[in-house]
Amino acid sequence: ASAAFARVLRFQPDHLGALFHEGLLLARQRRYEDAEHRWRRVVDMDPTGSYAMRARLEMRANTDLETALEARPGG
Prior knowledge:
- It is built from 4 helices and no strands.
- The chain is an all-alpha fold.
- Helix 3 (about 30-45) packs antiparallel against helix 4.
- The N and C termini lie far apart (about 30 Å).
- It is flat, with a radius of gyration of 13 Å.
């Protein structure tokens, strides 16, 4: 899937679906900063779109996860 999204983005760098889903893949790899960068691009390009709404939810979920991990003893 990663190669497919990279291929789409090579030819259409502003493809909202590919950016959003690439962000999901990056988050699953625990590359949260990279994922958030993709999602912020989606929100910036189409703030009222369905991918933007989903991107905001993903960013919020990842922020909550990071906060929880930092709150753990030794985190």
